[in-house]
Amino acid sequence: MIDTTPDISIIICAYTEERWHDLIAAVESIQRQSILPRETILVIDHNTQLFERARTLIPGVTVIESTEPRGLSGARNSGIALSRGNFIAFLDDDAVAEPDWLERLYFCCQDSEVLGVGGVVEPLWLRGCPTWFPKEFYWVIGCTYNNPPDIPTAVRNPYGGCTCIRREVFEVVGGFRNGIGRIGSYPMGGEETELCIRAGQHWPHKVFLCEPRAKIRHRISPYRASWRYFQSRCYAEGLSKATVVSYVGAKDSLSSERSYICRILPKGIWRGITDALFHLDSVGLLRAGAIIVGLILTTMGYLSKAISQYIVKYKGVSTHIHSLFQTFIVPK
Fold it and tell me: Which CATH class is domain 8-316?
């Protein structure tokens, strides 16, 4: 498809030795790409032991330590600062890319009106998918939750760990915002959403794309497939959404979510019910129930964060008014 060597830097971020074998698989999947990147940068997020191990045992990559605050956003920004490519691709440390992944992303990026391109993230269940787990909530495990399009299609934001973005985006609107996104194992998110919205607001006539044929497989540990993780991730997503809204506004931040709540979730609930009633699949009711619980928890997280932000803002305003009152009104 492409004759020239791509001017792409690939960034992989890691923070724990517990996923060492996953990290090795991720790096090897990059080394097997149909077109090879200009460089692969492995960023270790505040873990000296992992840094020394990776620097010693993983050949063919540039291994650095994050120089920003702990978290995925800071680690990615550290990689961006060192990278040299005109395009910067990101792959999760617990994912493996299909051999044509980079080639398909890069092909779409040849259009100057495209700010970045993401692919499809498929789950690689290490112990099988729980029967109660609804596909509509695959975003909980960092995977594509809806049916992907047949051709490259404009989206608000691609998946952060399966994407390629123009360097110009970072140079003009800045990097990933610290304070948003995953820190260690704490299941926050939203950093790529906030970045893409910022870019879209700056270049309203340019787009991000989803290329459905650019695929990675995301390894899903038993813990991430558990009910406990499902609940915590849903609540944390609500917190993340409210944080993103505070930075870039509700109109753009919640545009996809409105369609998701009004169209995708009702269909998923109805599908679970009909599976139980007409296909004798009793677990269908559990899937429908999981959708309802997931929506409630996400909403609770959003409202909790939004209310706390309002209180802080109101307190700040009242403190300022009180200060003015003391300065100009109260006699000395």
Answer: alpha beta
pLDDT per residue as tens digits for the range 83-124:
999 999 999 999 999 999 999 999 999 999 999 999 999 999
Residue given tokens 């459905």 in the structure block = 212
Longest CA span, the chain: 80
Q: What is the C-alpha to C-alpha distance for residues 29 and 10, in angstroms, rounded to an integer?
A: 12
The domain limits of the chain are 8-316
Sign of CA dihedral 263, 264, 265, 270: positive
Q: pLDDT tens, 140-194?
A: 999 999 888 899 999 999 998 999 999 999 999 999 999 888 888 788 889 999 9
Is residue 271 within 8 Å of 208, Cβ to Cβ? no
